[in-house]
Structure prediction request, 288 residues.
Amino acid sequence: MTEGVLIHKKTDTGKIAGEMEEVTLIPKGKIDIKLEADVITPDSFAGKSAGEIGMLSVWQGPKTYPLSDFFEVTGNAGSSAAGTMIRIKGDAMRIKRIGEGMSAGKIEIEGSAGMHVGTGMKGGEILVHGDADSWAGMEMLGGLLHIKGNAGDHVGCAYRGKWHGMKGGRIVIEGSARHNLGGGMDGGEILVDGNVEGFCGIRQNGGLIVVKGGALRTVGVEMAGGTIVIGGKIQRFSPGFEFVSMENKVTSGEVELIGEFKKFTGDYAISKRAKGALYVSAAANPEL
Prediction:
């Protein structure tokens, strides 16, 4: 049982739901080489008929093919991205970049999602009923990415060679996530109901990360700003943090966390002016 954290979430899903035209994508068969399908967004579909949507190009290896080679497309899109709902009826784990850069509307995946789902999204909502592969919500700017299963590595991260990751929006993971969650994060919120592994919040500069479960090691290493809350056990605590106080409530934006926490600041191993705040469950971490 997770100790020490109660998350009160406020979402804008009611604003998005409204009257929307729905486009349904049904996979035609097993996909061998993964697809690069950044065209699967309300922005790209807006104003198009099912036939026109089916002619949009996706990459598979070195070649492009029409979307209709891989999906049965039914329904017409709305006149705008905000008026367009995309429903993928089946597993999409071998389809990359769904929802990349989307500004409005909604995507619902009735299965799992491939790498880079929601990369750079600016608004709207993506709901994944299964798991999400690595790099979900990479460099996200706004909107809601809701993953009902588990997520892979690098959720909300900066891309390799870059320093700034997620800047806005909200990522909700009902399961667990792996390594480098929120790496380089500058803003927004990541809420994880389960556990995380190594390097959660590495190089974090702003925003909020809440993990209701435990963490493996190196939480907040190299962070300079922002807030991390861990509701379970941290297996290996980073040495660059200093204890500040005991707290019984943490409030950040629309998220309120209730419980007994030990507050630390850091990472002073990197900078003596670091302003990162790390809250850990007192009950789960009595030795700290």
Summary: The two ends are 20 Å apart (CA to CA).
